Amino acid sequence: MNSKYKPYFQFSLILLTGLILRLIAFGGFIGGDDAAYIHSAERLYNSGFSLGTSHYSLRFGLHIPLAGMIALFGSGEWAMVALSFISSIGAILLAFLLGRWAGNVRVGLFSALVIAVFPLDVELATTLVPDILLGTLLASSIYLALQNDNHNQTTIGYLSAGLIWGWAYLIRIDVAFLGPFFIAWFFLQKPFTWQRSWVFIGVGLVLLGENLIYFTASGEWLYRLKIVAGGQGDGAFYVEAMAGQELSIFPKAWFLTPYQFGLHYFLLAASIIWGILHGGRKTALLLTWLLGLLLWLEFGGSPSSLFSEGGYVFKSHLLRYCAIVSIPMAVMVGLFLASRSQHGQRILSLALVGAALFMINFNMLNHERPTSSKIAIREAMDQNWFPLYLDITSYHIARFIMKDDQRLNQVHNLQDHNFITGETKVMDLRQLQGYILINKQFMKFKNARNATIPLNVEENRRDATIIYRVDNPMWHSSYVQTRFMAWMAENFIPVANLRDKILGTANSLLEDGDVLVYQLK
Q1: What are the Cα distances from residue 388, in Å, to 19, 35, 403, 417?
Q2: Which of 81, 99, 368, 514 is buried deepest, with most CB atoms within 10 A?
Q3: Residue 172: helix, strand or coil by DSSP?
């Protein structure tokens, strides 16, 4: 093969690998935040703009393209996750391009490989969450600005970069903390030009347009910021232990129980130290991008809480937020790998890829809960088990699956939970006739996180008979790996808390009876 085209052939193989891994790890509808996004997008598509009262309903940067997918393909699972999937594949391309900008084609290939097998991105690529889309939009904005520096330095190029940054802001306001990168880029990138100010004008136009629309609809400026700060309809109730505000959550997940991170953040830590000691101007820009957002994710919170009696409140530390910085993470690791000797490159690359594939197989079990409910719901549809009563999350999944089914009015929610107050109204099981579908793991999770009152069918209905069950529906290899990890923890991890945490996770995943369907007689 012509050496000129060999790197691009290698990149094509990396891209294909990333695509296949993401298809294998398909998640689809999970009955969580994606239910709110789908509802908002369908309302936008069917009824046009309306003023929302929660931060979920105001993420029009996500709702508008999602409504476009619904218009083109309907509201099935693939149409729903298409934005995340395209963004995840686009992230591999952007990592290659930014790696090539930061170093050379070899750095670009390492960067693409790092993100192609990143367990967190592989898992999120086929679920409807905003994080991968956000990360790809931010990287697109930055790459466009950097490329514009290297070519014509046109006003339209810089303005477009700012508009893309603004579009990301319409999804989640956290992206405002990309500001330190663009300020550093404005002054440090050579040659200097005042035309770069059009990036800030672009994002400013988006902010101005958003506030004009909200002011016209509500008569109030900064409407969205007030909602996010804890105004109307926001501020869901969480059990304190599951609020995700402890500062140790990210470091533990990166280095102690790195199910969704593999060895990536170990190499990232090494690359940050290497970049500080040996990096140049381009590496400094990458570190500003990466560390600025990581520091916000770790220490950020609600500014309004500074003036409350309880003091400053940290934002939730959800692991999926780290997908926002997957691309600069990949480029930094790519630079670090390319700086090693050929022997070191091989060893570190094999270790990174091996650990990633190991964790990707295990992380398939993160889809166990929704997959179990989907299997049982489709069986209920085939067997005509109606009226059907379900736990709260399975209920949302059933409404999504059955939205065009005439029996939808026979699907009922057993747990009417108010996520603002933390109160649950539970149906009286003694008065019901028909069928009950219970996902035990969903109930445990909702009870631990939101204090949702669980259900016990056997205690309330002695005439209930189990007619169907779903036991460990994911790949057999994932459960074999879970048993292996439990054995390793039990025999080789001396730290009791860590060992117990791993064993608890394994035992929960290996437990039978993920979903039970009861017939009431």
Answers
A1: 37, 20, 15, 18
A2: 99
A3: coil
Beta carbons of 286 and 95 less than 8 angstroms apart: no
Give the CA distances from residue 142 to residues 56, 250, 280, 287, in Å, rounded to whole numbers and listed in that order.
26, 25, 18, 13
Token pair of 264, please?
Answer: 């990536």
pLDDT of 231: 47
Which among 37, 78, 26 has a CA at the least distance from the CA of 60?
37
Predicted confidence at residue 233, as pLDDT, reads: 42
Please identify which residue in the block is written with the tokens 């130290």. Answer: 273
Q: Is 235:310 a contact under the CB 8 Å cutoff?
A: no
pLDDT of residue 53: 81
Token pair for residue 127?
């679920």
Instruction: Say how many CA atoms lie within 13 Å of 118 toward its Cβ.
Output: 36
Coil vs helix vs strand at 261: coil
CA-CA distance, 374 to 378, in Å (whole number)? 6
Closest CA to 373 of 27, 74, 36, 85: 27
Residue 252 and residue 309: Cα distance in Å, rounded?
30
User: How high is the pLDDT of residue 232?
Assistant: 42
Low-confidence ranges of the chain (pLDDT < 70): 1-2, 230-236, 303-308, 310
Q: How many CB atoms lie within 10 A of CB 427?
A: 16
Distances (CA, A) of 12 to 69, 89, 155: 27, 12, 33
Which helix or strand (DSSP H or E) is residue 438 part of?
strand 434-439
How much is the pLDDT for 259? 94
User: What is the pLDDT at residue 307?
Assistant: 65
